Amino acid sequence: MALAITGMLLVVALPTLHAQTPRSRVEMSAQYLVALSEVLERGYQQTQRYPSHVLMDFPDLSTDRTTPPVGVAPGPAFRFSLQSTPQAYTLTATALNGLRCTLTLNQSGARTASGPDCGALRW
């Protein structure tokens, strides 16, 4: 159930990444990780376990073909993935198309941002 909701969230949310500046793309991707985490936590509250998928990749499902701003590569900005066990998970957003930034968020709320395009992201 939680994975279906997660998938629907990504289908709706990912197209908006295409028209954003690199900094905005990083900030929006961080917000998506938090939203995905909230879905996982709600599922955990109901079942006392996280999805038991070792690795799940959420590919870009966008059909948006708008022209990006100058200096921004066309195409999806981030790829989102979930690595989980029944008691733990790590969500990862990895930058694509020339951006250099990787964001992670785990079940304890620990957040990391690594790479020069992450800037001074505080999330």
Question: What can you tell me about this protein's structure?
Answer:
The protein is an alpha+beta fold. 31% of the residues lie in helices and 23% in strands. The chain has two helices and five strands. It has helices spanning 2-13, 22-47, and strands spanning 56-58, 78-85, 88-95, 102-106, 111-114. The chain has a five-stranded antiparallel β-sheet, covered by helices on one side. Helix 1 runs antiparallel to helix 2 (22-47). The chain is elongated, with a radius of gyration of 14 Å. The two termini are 27 Å apart. Mean pLDDT is 77; it is low at 61-65.
Topology (elements, then pairings):
Elements: H1 2-13, H2 22-47, E1 56-58, E2 78-85, E3 88-95, E4 102-106, E5 111-114
Antiparallel strand pairs: 1-2, 2-3, 3-4, 4-5
Helix pairs in contact: 1-2
Uncertain segments? 61-65
Share in helix: 25-40%
What portion of residues belong to β-strands?
15-25%
| Element-level helix/strand string | HHEEEEE
Give me the count of strands.
5
- Choose one word for the global shape: elongated
Our measurement of the CA-to-CA distance between the termini, rounded to an integer number of angstroms, reads 27 Å
Report the average pLDDT across residues. 77
Q: What's the main sheet like?
A: 5 strands, antiparallel
Q: In angstroms, what is the radius of gyration?
A: 14 Å
- Secondary-structure-based class equals alpha+beta
| Biggest β-sheet: strands ordered side by side in the sheet | 1-2-3-4-5
Total count of helical runs of at least 4 residues: 2
